[in-house]
User: Fold this.
Amino acid sequence: MKKPLEEGANSLIKDQLRSFLKDEIPITGTEHKLYPTTSQVPGGQFTPQILYLNGVNSSQVIPPGDYEVPVHYYCTKVYTLNGAGNRYRLARLNGRMSNVLSTLYQRASLNKVPIQDVQVLSWSIQSGVSYDNLSSSSKQLVNQLIPDYRQQLEGSFTDKTIKYWNSLSQITSLPSFDTTLNQLGDIGTFAKSLLRAREEIINTNFSYGALANAFVIPQDVNLPGGMGTTPWSQINEQVYLRFLAPKGALNDGIAQVRIVGRSQTKELDKVNLIKSNVESKQVIYSLPGNNNRSASSVTAEALLSNISQYDFSIKNYTLRGHIFYPGEVTRKVIDTGTSIAVMTTGEGVGKKKEFNLLVSPSVWDAADARLGVQMMLILNYENNNW
Assistant:
């Protein structure tokens, strides 16, 4: 019978190993930290437009609206069931290599690189294969797409884990390495699967076909209701997201996104066209439910717009009852020679002119962001259908 002191030491050592694995496992599941879900998104019927993210840079702000993003679904968990009819719930990617994997996927989407090569590199990163042990094609991808993470890929998860276990086993007598992992619960079982996956990757010489057969086990779910009943995950207070993958991972699919505007954007987006005089190119806008004329309201009760096709401009006049009456703003599209820009000029002499100066930059910046994204969507659509 083991002495109580030895049993206590072994328990402490195992806790140390659990903590080590928690910090070192490359990619971890977060089933206990899933984003909250809802069957319906707020704001009514989902009416998407296509958004190609490879045409969006990190400085662009995507305005509130509904979008469908064409995507490729990589497999981010070895030895997983996969097939048609799955409904995916979403969680943040965690683990020591989560930033490496996220950056790899992002940069791969912007470059014409073979999807299968990206997937093999992804499996290698997930399983803790060090840079030195990668295949030549995987090393080339690292150097091309994520050279800034190469140092993070030095040293394998297997070597680090065995080295740490050896140092612990010198403190007290422990069972074999495999037996110790078996006694660590879920995290030990997961660590063993990664060690096995690493050996499989190297033994198959990084073959996509062999690894796909080993890591992605075909199993159609075919749940009642189909993919249309996939719940929406609420990523934050403004973004709702769900993945629709008709064939599961290793295939193309759609990511559906609803972006809900903040309070001011919501008010601005409530503008409804109530009258249009096509002949004179004049339109009048009204904001529903905005009969309160208090000074705290910055939204327009009524505007008159003149649209000129000759100099590519729109001139907005505030009407009586508007908080910024009397006033006018001209928005004009100009060619600078190196880019297309929108110039905004205005004049206001009403009682709230100081307040107008305070809020107008954010209002027009938001309008410019929406305009820029809409132009990007149009250009992307044309480029992808050329």
About this structure: The mean pLDDT is 78. The chain is about 35% helix and 20% strand. The radius of gyration is 28 Å.
